[in-house]
Amino acid sequence: MHIMEGFLPLQHAVGWSLASAPFVAWGIHSVRRRLREQPEQRMLLGVAAAFAFVLSALKLPSVTGSCSHPTGVGLGALLFGPLAMVPVGLVVLLFQALLLAHGGLTTLGANLFSMAIVGPFVAAGIFRLGRRFAVPLAGCVFFAACLGDLATYLTTAIQLAWAFPDPAGGFAASLAKFAGIFAVTQIPLAISEGLLTVLVVNALVRFNAEELKGLALFSPREVRA
Amino acid sequence: MKRRNWLIVAAIVLLTVSPLWLVPHLGIGAAVGPDGQPAGLFGGADGKAQEAIGEIAPDYQPWFKPLLEPASSEIASLLFALQAALGAGVIGYWLGCAVTRDKLRRAAERDATEKETRAD
After folding, report:
1. Smallest Cα–Cα separation from A78: which of A48, A39, A53, A33?
2. Do the chains contact at B44 and A3, CB–CB below 8 Å?
3. What is the band of B36 on the pLDDT scale with cuts at 50, 70, 90?
4. What is the 3-state secondary structure (H, E, C) of A72-105?
5. ipTM of this predicted complex?
6. Is any Cβ of chain A less than 8 angstroms from the Cβ of B58?
7. pTM of the model as a whole
């Protein structure tokens, strides 16, 4: 989902940066406030950030014959809410943009918007929806992480289609092309990410039940189960 | 629970490894590139998107270059490995702490109940 350095026209690069900036400020503010109020959650926040670090470094093969990577931001979005994942995503993307020439500074805003804003918000939304309809915890976690991951890649496809509409077919034809590259490749990877997130949440429920009680999205009833 | 976790691990491995066999054998994906040469399999999707941009807008020139590019693919994989190792280290530390804490708590509970029964 990394749009390469310089591969978004100037207006788009500026526009996406402006769109992401308030989320970054809001996200940093929300993480700092949470750590001040509940310092015992520092460890779990570290685990969520580490999970995003590992998963976004792993380029996995997919059935389309190309490689892509999961994002790993779903876990943190479920535990701490989507805003907490904005600063985490920023660190990951900056690391890759500055040291690896993977993604870039001019496309940082756009990449941040897809990976650290749309993905976590979709994941947290689906998780909340599932909890409301009493879907079992593992199911909620799986679909939240899996669909959040897919949403990120779909966003990238939309961003590129918007910037590069097909001369004949326009936005739609372009979107079909980019979605074919990103979203279809991502389907098995998104399933893997969903399953991995379930594994980590299983471990959290077993070992960190106390801390989970302090997290808004996990009701105490579930933690005991 | 333990069995289900192992099934999940098996599913993840299967999902990751099966494309390596499926793609060349079933001929999914672009086996032949636009130039008639066999296309490189399992390249990055990001690179594919870059090619697609080249097809849609052949005149587009990237207007900014990365400040620092890994000197070779070896250096790039070093940095990716470093990123994964950092994350995995933190997760391993947490898991180690969590398991030990759980064990100690159980042992303490066992001691407490033993003392109670002895006191009776």
Report:
1. A48
2. no
3. very low
4. CHHHHHHHHCHHHHHHHHHHHHHHHHHHCCCCCC
5. 0.86
6. no
7. 0.89
